[in-house]
Amino acid sequence: MRKESSGGDSRREAFGKLLLGSLAGLLGMALLGAALAFSGVISVAANPSGPIDARADSLLNAISRASIRRHGVRAANPFAGDRAAAGEGLGEFRESCLACHGAGRVPPAEFAAGLNPGAPSLDSKEIQSMSDGELFWVVSHGIRSTGMPAFGGSKDEKDIWRIVAFARRLPTLTEEETRRLRASGDQR
């Protein structure tokens, strides 16, 4: 009986050492990560400066995407498929989104070339694959440290849903919509 007890004790002891070693390894990796983050090796410059920054941007993009999926509104767009509402959203889009994102044959403003990360093309597959609720959440809450502002404080929900309805039209903009986007005055 004594042998069984010492065998059980040695297994518990081995498990304890394994657990302690794993925790020490995780702590070491966390400390190494913190040292790297605070060492200044990763540049905060707006212009891209190397492979470490590219990897950091890739990681932050993945984190951002996961956060948007988790926090995105689950509600359906009350203006989905409503061309009149999308037309109203065009004016809001032109006022608040066009300068950074551009739209079809309407390029973004010159300053947008200096954004890092750059504002995504909203007619891209990645953005168009997002749910209306996710797009609503991004427009409402913005995305920290990217230049994407939170419009929830300055626009009401209906205006934001209309922007989302218009954003869905971006891959198939008509000549009339393109002309309206280029217009200097609001022609809603």
What does this structure look like?
There is one protein chain. The chain folds into 2 domains: 2-41; 56-182, Cytochrome Bc1 Complex, Chain D, domain 2. Helices cover 58% and strands 0% of the residues. The protein has helices at 2-38, 51-71, 83-96, 98-101, 125-128, 132-141, 157-167, 175-182. α3 (83-96) packs across α7 (157-167), α3 (83-96) packs parallel to α8 (175-182) and α6 (132-141) packs across α7. The chain is an all-alpha fold.
Element-by-element helix/strand order:
HHHHHHHH
Q: Please report which band the strand proportion falls in: under 5%, 5-15%, 15-25%, 25-35%, 35-45% or over 45%.
A: under 5%
Mean pLDDT: 88
Terminal-residue CA separation: 88 Å
Backbone shape = elongated
CATH level-two architecture of the largest domain: Orthogonal Bundle
Write the CATH homologous superfamily of the largest domain.
Answer: Cytochrome c-like domain
- Rg for CA atoms: 25 Å
At CATH level 3, the topology of the largest domain is Cytochrome Bc1 Complex, Chain D, domain 2
**What kind of oligomer do you see?**
single chain
Largest sheet data? none
CATH C-level class of the largest domain is Mainly Alpha
Whole-number total of structural domains: 2
- What is the count of β-strands? 0
**In DSSP terms, counting alpha (H) and pi (I) runs of 4 or more, how many helices?**
8
Q: What structural category characterises the helix and strand content?
A: mainly alpha
What level of helicity do the residues show?
A: 55-70%
Uncertain stretches of 5 or more adjacent residues: none
